[in-house]
Amino acid sequence: MAEPSLLIGYRTTAQVHNGGNIQSASHNPPPFEILGISPLTKPPVTPTPTRVPTLQGLMYRNPNNPHRWMLDGKPFHPIGFGDCVYVRGANNAILMGFDGEQKPNFTDLDTYFKAYSDAGFNFLRISVGNCSFPLDLMSENWALMDTYIGKARQYGFQIQFCFFNTNADLQQLEYVRKCVKRYETAVAIWEVCNETNSSDAVVSVVADFVKSIDAKKRPVTVSHHPNQYPYLRDIPALDLISPHWYQEDDSEFSLDKDIVDRFVYLKAWGKPVIAGEYGLSSANWSQVSALQMRLASWSAFFNEVGLCFWNTSWDKNLKQEGNSNIYLGKQERSFIKVLSDFTKQVPGDVKIANIMVNKPDSVRAYALSSGNGYFAYLHAFTNHRSQTSGISMTIESKTAGYATWIEPSTGRVLATGKVSAGRQTLPVPPFLIDVALKVSSSPSVKK
After folding, report:
1. Do residues 66 and 305 make contact, with C-beta atoms less than 8 angstroms apart?
2. b vs e for 376-405, b when ≥16 Cβ sit within 10 Å of the residue's Cβ?
3. pTM score, two decimals?
4. 191-242 tens-digit pLDDT
5. What is the set of domains in the chain, with CATH numbers?
6. For residues 391 and 428, is the Cβ–Cβ distance under 8 A?
7. Can you tell me whether residue 18 is helix, strand or coil?
């Protein structure tokens, strides 16, 4: 059968982590019969490429904290996604799955990137040949990649670009060179290989080659499964850790702790952590999946970990045991918007701080502190049905200021007050599921 006109390339089967076991799974594109597409009857026409804009700034490691990032001199917290990329028709139009609430749905790049950019997403992982069109030295698809990257940059996304899917190929170093030279003004992070099966020696050769030809010496990484952590830790050419993990679907009460258990210990290697793929194990959407995403996102931020979801918003009912990814629809985007607005108020010199709650058997708490503010996040991990009250927390603020308690689900201000410098105990207003605190030099306007 001829290749369907919607898809140029596909993701090959790869191993993914699921509950301690390595299982075979893949990011499958929508079934062809759902999309109603027909086989190609003539060779594809190469579209006119979109000019890749000159990058105004590249995200880089915070010089005061190796686990945080900066962009144009300001703090930058990566909140991102990757997705399948579909190509359809004689003109090779790129389509993206988008808000498939009632039935599978697709849209153009402008609509897609604008919706996620407006919601505060700021990071895009591009994984060549991974549920996407292939690329090599002689490929006819370079103009497609120009368009895809150009549109992503137009809407402000920092880009992590992955050269190979599963196996790095030392016979394709000229292809790697072409990628680096063609997209050096647009890419912030280079990724050698997706969920690599390559040896550490091969990964090192490619990573060192990239650094030898990249004048800006951007960070280089490789994505991996949990069983690969030990050897990836010891590759000097890799600058950040990029694990992939698909969360158990019944994890809403333990999710913040799971983030800590899965990712935070990796920071001991002295490199920043951005989870290159994160989603759900058995179904991309459920009645609590948006909540799971919210808890994961806030917990990751407070533990100095970046998250990059694998988005499958073309269909709200995707079930694929092992890695069903995650549905990032309207509600999910609204949650990220609140987090994004919050993170923009957190100064770049914050460090993880001590915090204690009076009822640790029912509430877990995380905190960040600097001379410019104090920030906290609390999760009532035993009660998601009714408000949690009677909670107090003991903190040590380096500065006096104004306290603003924020509801992460809406951004609504729950309470305000004043905070003194030094050690003190603060009452927490009643909250449902989770609550965030910002202590700053000026009061917030109550919504």
Report:
1. no
2. bbbbbbeebeeebeebebebebebebbbbb
3. 0.88
4. 999 998 888 899 999 999 999 999 989 999 999 865 555 557 778 899 999 9
5. 14-343 (3.20.20.80), 351-440 (2.60.40.1180)
6. yes
7. strand
